Amino acid sequence: MTTLTKNKISELILNQAPSFNSFPQLREKGRTITLGNGLPASKDEEYKFTSISKKLEQTLDNFSLSKKTVLDLNLIQSHLFEGFDGDLLVFNNGNYEKSLSSVNQTGIEVSSLNDSMPVSLGTIAKTEKDPFISLNNIYFEDGIFIKVKKNHKIDKPVFFLFFNKANQGQVISPRILIEVEENAEVSFLENTISLDESPYLCNVVTEIKVGQNAHVHYNRHQSENRNSIVVNNFETDIHRDATFTSVVISLSGDMVRNNLTLNLLDSGCEGNMYGLYLLNGKTHVDNHTNVDHTKPHSESNELYKGILADNSRGVFNGKIFVRQDAQKTNAFQQNNNILLSDDATVNTKPQLEIWADDVKCSHGCTTGQLDEEALFYLRARGLSKDQAKGMLLFAFAGEVLEHVSDESFKKYLTDIVQERLGSNF
Amino acid sequence: MLVIKNLHASIDGAPILRGINLEVKAGEVHAIMGPNGSGKSTLASVLAGREEYEVTEGEVLFKGKDLLALAPEERAREGVFLAFQYPVEIPGVSTTNFLRTAVNQVREYRGLNPLDAVKFLSVMKEKMKLVEIDQKLMSRSLNEGFSGGEKKRNEIFQMAMLEPTLSILDETDSGLDIDALRIVSNGVNQLKSSETATIVVTHYQRLLDYIVPDFVHVLFNGRIVKSGTKDLALDLEEKGYDWIKEEVKAASV
Ligand SMILES: Nc1ncnc2c1ncn2[C@@H]1O[C@H](COP(=O)(O)OP(=O)(O)OP(=O)(O)O)[C@@H](O)[C@H]1O
Ligand SMILES: [Mg+2]
User: Fold this and answer.
1) Residue A353 CB coordination number (10 Å)
2) Of A374, A387, A395, the CB nearest to B101
């Protein structure tokens, strides 16, 4: 096996990465940075607990871009959740499949990146911010550009449905750009289906501009196969009086790294981040979040919760940045974990950098076991041990699930979580 | 109904119960009194099946079955109910949902059909009246933010819902004002029958004015050192425990 040192990864990119003519400046920048810095080494502070280069090295042997696989309507139909009613965007190994998608609501425009060539691509998730953004810059073939028009309230959700399966290459590189214009409102749902159990790297970059007084909700379900390595760079620019809420439910995968960044660019912004991770086996999920308060009177709320069994590992790193200008900021952060096994671990770290003096900021983290007293209380009333455990864990998880914005999607996720928390964790 | 023979129990190796003998028959009310730390809650917990306590000697038969061999939930389904001295708060678990699950578990075990949502609610309404518990509490998380009195009422309400054959009330009267005490006692009295039995753990005679015991026992240092009729409770109210401690001392020399 190769060692992904700085030089080796450069070699791999030179040898195996694709080469595309579109977006030449982005590609070039990605290439330069990746060649210069490589992928994160274990010394890298940002990736201290998540040895992703090592994981890639151990798991993958073909760093070519995965080709499209075969999808048909029946398959897609079988992966829609019950009660789904909205616009559907289907992705085939990271490529937008227009013919299998359906977008009918007015106020929303969807095009492929190569067709629309938006100049703002890469201006929110800047290339140098994370090694995997650079890598995505090189690898993405085409992607999607969504525009939600000014003053439109999009009633039904927009559902991203990703199908992944390594095919003559183990890198999948979706790229998404969303612009929600002034006063618009929209709710996105996301689900990723692994079509088989073979390993791959899915390296997503999503950029969202939330325009003035716009309201956006993004609900993501991560449940890829147990050999998958997933990196998700998700960055939003939130403009004046706008609200953005992210909900991320992570249930499986080999190694998952989520970088979620909310830039509160003006006054009156509200950014909410909710996360739930239920981990078993050797699953490793790392949530790095970052909220940047730049102007007065903005608010952020964050709640991440984890339940960890077996040898799983959870990492939570929550950065709150309050700039000098950002007086009257309210920022709340909470990370709570329940360990169901002695071999499960959690590394949790709040990172507060506060340069303004008149702010309300609170954070806290807990890691513990299931409350034995409560367990006994429920059993003493006739509930079986599994039922009692399930009820307590579900109560814990429910606080995050309640923030999922679409009722049918919430039900779908709730059922999955409930099933997991029953006897079958 | 309940036969406790020479029961010894310890926690983390420290013996707490040191040979309890007690027989409770259907239709009876037994009061257990005794100074703080004497082992009353421990006895109640051991009967309910709390796993931290290790039974080192003795046996407990409930309706002829080996109670100690059963898991806590099996005991509950068999008809043992413990009203906790300190009911735990369980955020996120709705009282109604939890109770419905509990009631249906117990019913299933007893060979009864589960109650559907409508029927369950009507039973609930009826039992709520019994202990005059506020409807608002039912939609909140279990015991979360309940006052001391509300928690105790909620215990008796759950007891009413689960229809146990043996109820163990661990200081259900502590912290209740006179009105609440009367309401709770009324509830308990109405649930009493010739088929059920009640053990009340208390420090106060005033409860026993409402729930009149057939027998009163004094627990001290992990043993029942004195038993008598309801008059014993009156004596204790008047004279405290010192004379009993003296008796115990004298007997052990
Ligand atoms: N979990 C525990 N760990 C260690 N010691 C314990 C534990 N539980 C009870 N004990 C000890 O056992 C003894 C009996 O306690 P128990 O709670 O049964 O007393 P009690 O008679 O109910 O008292 P009270 O009237 O104050 O409620 C006490 O000395 C107590 O400190
Ligand atoms: Mg006690």
Assistant:
1) 10
2) A387
Helix, strand and coil content of chain B, in percent to the nearest 5, comes to: 45, 30, 30
Question: Which residue of chain A has the CA closest to B44?
Answer: A380
Q: Where are the domains of chain B?
A: 2-252
pTM of the model: 0.90
Q: Write down the CATH number for the domain with range B2-252.
A: 3.40.50.300
Chain B residues in contact with A394 (beta carbon < 8 A): 92
CB pairs under 8 A, 24+ apart, for A411-415? A411/A81, A411/A82, A411/A83, A412/A81, A412/A82, A412/A83, A413/A221, A413/A249
Q: Per the CB < 8 Å rule, is B90 touching A374?
A: yes
Q: Is B196 in the pocket of ligand 1 (CB under 6 A)?
A: no
Per-residue pLDDT of chain A (425 residues; tens, 9 = 90+): 344 555 566 567 667 889 999 999 999 999 999 888 888 887 889 999 999 998 998 899 899 999 999 999 999 999 999 999 999 999 999 999 999 999 999 999 999 999 999 999 999 999 999 999 999 999 999 999 999 999 999 999 999 999 999 999 999 999 999 999 999 999 999 999 999 999 999 999 999 999 999 999 999 999 999 999 999 999 999 999 999 999 999 999 999 999 999 999 999 999 999 999 999 999 999 999 999 999 999 999 999 999 999 999 999 999 999 999 999 999 999 999 999 999 999 999 999 999 999 999 999 999 999 999 999 999 999 999 999 999 999 999 999 999 999 999 999 999 999 999 986 67
How is residue B239 written in tokens?
């004279």
Residue B44 Cα, gap to closest chain A Cα (Å): 12
- The CA-atom distances, in angstroms, between B150 and each of A319, B83, B85, B87, B192 are 41, 13, 13, 10, 22
B222 lines ligand 1 (CB under 6 A): no
- Asked if A418 has any chain B CB less than 8 Å from its own CB, the reply is no
Nearest to B98 among A371, A376, A391 (CB): A391
Is residue B145 within 6 Å of ligand 1 at its C-beta? no
User: Which of A373, A374, A379 lies nearest to residue B72, judging by beta carbons?
Assistant: A379
